[in-house]
């Protein structure tokens, strides 16, 4: 695909595309291919694959006093980055390699601090976990320099991304846009390729924040919107956004076009391919986002744009699933016809910042069911018990999953849900709960965790997603 018509592209490279020196070199060559054609390229990088999870475990180990485990794992991270730096041509005495060493030492001290205090606040966790991206950005600079490009790496904060103080799930502040133009405009005009550490920003007071798991996609779109880029390209280890997770459904197909709304639903309902909020910065400008395959750069991938693009006979575009979900059933006299109770339940969930995946209320109004990620369920139960009025009982069932179908073509179409339920029945899947999003872009059901893979394949086949669209 030609980039000739573009003047500015933001390119995001995920953990897999940064996993070792060879992958980083390949990623750099993709950025260089367009930079050499005169396109200004802003590169945004994730941590090397696995590093974010490792840093989270290290922080937890330090907090519980297991400094030996923390140090062992830190040594692996140090080795992995120093080895990659060497392979990418970084000399031990070069400024970039010295900087890497200093970053690793600061990380070690931060972890030791957690160990001494036995205390890990959301703020300290963000500081520690963002080191993954701060350490991978210099490696990308080395790789770009190895291809004779001039590069300059920056933290998310230094690139101008200012956020609120919501550690672990921070949101950008409006004044970021001007800061980003200030911080990156000069570099771009001087022919330098900025390499921005993804996933992170900083508060006005200078504390490091993170944008939520998978947040590098979000960093890329925040930068693209501020810089009025022509497009954002998210390079992945898949062809694009697929009709289902290709690890579960071998005949999943690439989706050519999706709307911002569709991609948000897909991400919300578990498609790990993009951050659920990634397209939100683009909604005003309509800047397109392309999900592209790093292994096959000329393949068009998936174009994500403002407008919905429907194929006749194909109301559903994709099937997604979220595993490890809890269902919380709220029953009791207090639920009977008392909308305030429902609103107080929602308030409690919202205050705790818990993702509410599904809600359903029985027609008798005597029962409300909520689907919540297992990881949030204990907090949710606690919050619900403290919030509600009346005589309510709460019952939690774990080991469930949410399966969703997504597509703009289902709006106003009869029979789509019925087709999904028939497919599930034929696959002997018991449906525990049903809900349709008010946007009419999705229908979701709660099922048993153990039945997710078979159910996904059955629904995928029922909507003809594994082959060419029906006429
Ligand atoms: N509908 C889907 N389309 C494409 N990929 C999906 C989908 N659902 C889940 N995935 C998984 O998401 C992965 C890509 O996301 P991720 O690894 O986070 O990307 P990144 O390269 O940005 O780190 C793929 O390897 C794939 O297994
Ligand atoms: N490293 C962060 C941010 C990210 O976006 O990663 P990836 O692009 O590898 O999904 C995470 O794991 O959440």
UniProtKB/TrEMBL annotation:
PROSITE patterns: ACT. Gene3D superfamilies: Acetylglutamate kinase-like (3.40.1160.10), VC0802-like (3.30.2130.10). It catalyses: L-aspartate + ATP = 4-phospho-L-aspartate + ADP. It comes from Deinococcus proteolyticus (strain ATCC 35074 / DSM 20540 / JCM 6276 / NBRC 101906 / NCIMB 13154 / VKM Ac-1939 / CCM 2703 / MRP). Pathway: Amino-acid biosynthesis; L-threonine biosynthesis; L-threonine from L-aspartate: step 1/5; Amino-acid biosynthesis; L-lysine biosynthesis via DAP pathway; (S)-tetrahydrodipicolinate from L-aspartate: step 1/4; Amino-acid biosynthesis; L-methionine biosynthesis via de novo pathway; L-homoserine from L-aspartate: step 1/3. It comes from the Bacteria. ATP binds at residues 12-15, 247, 272-273. InterPro entries: AceGlu_kinase-like_sf (IPR036393), ACT-like_dom_sf (IPR045865), ACT_Aspartokinase (IPR054352), ACT_dom (IPR002912), Asp/Glu/Uridylate_kinase (IPR001048), Asp_kin_monofn (IPR005260), Asp_kinase (IPR001341). Its EC number is 2.7.2.4. GO terms for molecular function: aspartate kinase activity; ATP binding. Substrate binds at residues 52, 133. Belongs to the aspartokinase family. GO terms for cellular component: cytosol. Keywords: Amino-acid biosynthesis, ATP-binding, Kinase, Lysine biosynthesis, Nucleotide-binding, Transferase. Residues 330-399, 405-471 form the ACT domain. One of its GO terms (biological process) is threonine biosynthetic process. This is Aspartokinase. The lineage of its organism: Bacteria, Thermotogati, Deinococcota, Deinococci, Deinococcales.
């Amino acid at each position: 695909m030609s980039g000739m018509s573009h003047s500015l592209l933001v390119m995001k490279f995920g953990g897999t595309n940064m996993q070792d020196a060879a992958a980083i070199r390949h990623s750099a060559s993709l950025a260089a291919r367009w930079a050499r054609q005169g396109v200004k390229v802003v590169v945004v990088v994730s941590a090397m694959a696995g590093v974010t999870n490792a840093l989270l475990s290290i922080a937890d180990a330090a907090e519980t006093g297991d400094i030996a485990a923390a140090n062992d794992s830190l040594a692996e991270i140090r080795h992995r980055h120093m080895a990659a730096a060497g392979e990418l041509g970084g000399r031990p005495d070069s400024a970039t390699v010295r900087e890497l060493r200093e970053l690793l030492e600061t990380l070690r001290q931060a972890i030791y601090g957690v160990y001494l205090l036995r205390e890990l606040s959301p703020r300290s966790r963000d500081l520690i976990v963002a080191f993954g991206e701060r350490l991978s950005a210099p490696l990308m600079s080395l790789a770009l320099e190895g291809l004779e490009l001039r590069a300059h790496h920056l933290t998310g904060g230094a690139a101008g991304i200012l956020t609120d103080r919501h550690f672990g799930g921070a949101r950008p502040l409006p004044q970021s846009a001007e800061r980003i133009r200030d911080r990156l405009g000069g570099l771009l005009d001087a022919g330098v390729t900025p390499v921005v550490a993804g996933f992170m920003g900083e508060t006005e007071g200078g504390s490091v924040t993170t944008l939520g798991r998978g947040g590098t996609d979000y960093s890329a779109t925040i930068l693209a919107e501020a810089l009025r880029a022509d497009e954002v390209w998210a390079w992945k280890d898949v062809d694009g956004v697929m009709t289902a997770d290709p690890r579960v459904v071998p005949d999943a197909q690439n989706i050519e076009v999706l709307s911002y709304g569709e991609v948000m639903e897909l991400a919300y309902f578990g498609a790990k391919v993009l951050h659920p909020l990634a397209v939100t910065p683009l909604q005003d400008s309509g800047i397109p986002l392309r999900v592209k395959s790093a292994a096959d750069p000329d393949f068009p991938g998936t174009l994500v744009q403002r407008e919905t693009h429907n194929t006749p006979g194909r109301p559903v575009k994709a099937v997604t699933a979220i595993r490890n979900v809890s269902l919380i059933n709220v029953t009791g006299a207090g639920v009977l016809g008392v909308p305030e109770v429902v609103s107080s339940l929602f308030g409690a969930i919202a205050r705790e910042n818990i993702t509410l995946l599904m809600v359903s209320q029985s027609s008798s109004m005597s029962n409300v069911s909520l689907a919540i990620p297992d990881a949030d369920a204990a907090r949710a139960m606690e919050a619900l018990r403290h919030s509600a009025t009346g005589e309510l009982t709460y019952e939690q069932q774990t080991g469930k999953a949410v399966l969703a179908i997504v597509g703009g073509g289902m709006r106003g179409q009869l029979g789509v849900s019925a087709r999904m339920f028939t497919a599930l029945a034929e696959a002997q899947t018991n449906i525990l709960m049903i809900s349709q999003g008010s946007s009419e872009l999705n229908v979701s059901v709660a099922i048993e965790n153990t039945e997710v893979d078979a159910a996904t394949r059955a629904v995928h086949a029922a909507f003809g997603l594994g082959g060419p669209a029906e006429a």
